[in-house]
Design brief:
The structure is a single chain. By secondary structure, the chain is mainly β. It is 5% helix and 39% strand. Strands 1, 3, 5, 7, 9 and 10 form a six-stranded mixed β-sheet that branches. A four-stranded antiparallel β-sheet has the order 2-4-8-6, with no helix packed on it. The longest helix is centred in the first third of the chain and has 9 residues. The termini are far apart. The relative contact order is 0.24.
């Protein structure tokens, strides 16, 4: 019996996420758990980037290339930093469904990656107006990882989008009567 326990303790974990946790809620782990850069290409898109507070939005992550015939994990995070509070819920997002369609986790794992995959999450936007960014992190066996560092920038509520131009009319002055073509 002690030999069996010894073998089980020493057996490597063959999952994409550090510690082999499978589909679940996971914080951003940085280079501490996956220290090799994956060659996978990651893209993200959303059903809408300007939303009202507490409205529904769909986020899609597409992965191509990288290590194939292995486990692949994809996660949505609200920051690309090796510290707590990277879960989207820390910024007020609520995940209503993950790519499984039946659970609501930020980390989703498949057991056999064949070189491309598309993963879709349904979320509810934060209730507080503001600008929020959601990023994707892709993890392979190996351990290798790659981030979608651009992220998706969401404008929640009736505020000016980031980088929007500001326009001020200096002529004619306010309340002036004008004639001809303006």
């Amino acid at each position: 019996i002690s030999i069996l326990v010894f073998v089980l303790v020493l057996a490597p974990s063959f999952t994409a996420f550090n510690g082999g946790v499978g589909t679940s809620e996971q914080e951003y782990c940085g280079t501490g758990c996956h220290d090799t850069l994956s060659s996978a290409v990651v893209t993200m898109e959303a059903s809408d980037l300007t939303v009202t507070p507490a409205s529904a939005v769909t986020v899609t992550v597409t992965v191509t290339g990288g290590t194939t015939a292995s486990i692949l994990g994809v996660m949505l995070v609200s920051t690309l930093g090796e510290f707590p509070e990277s879960l989207p819920s820390a910024d007020g997002w609520t995940i209503t469904t993950d790519p499984s369609g039946s659970t609501a986790f930020n980390y989703y794992e498949i057991s056999s990656y064949t070189g491309s995959g598309t993963f879709e999450w349904s979320l509810t936007a934060p209730t507080t107006e503001g600008v929020y960014v959601i990023y994707a992190r892709v993890l392979h066996d190996g351990p290798a990882a790659v981030d979608y560092t651009t992220g998706l920038t969401f404008v929640v509520g009736d505020i000016a989008p980031p980088g929007a131009p500001a326009v001020t009319l200096t002529s004619p002055p306010e309340n002036a009567e004008v004639e001809e073509t303006i």
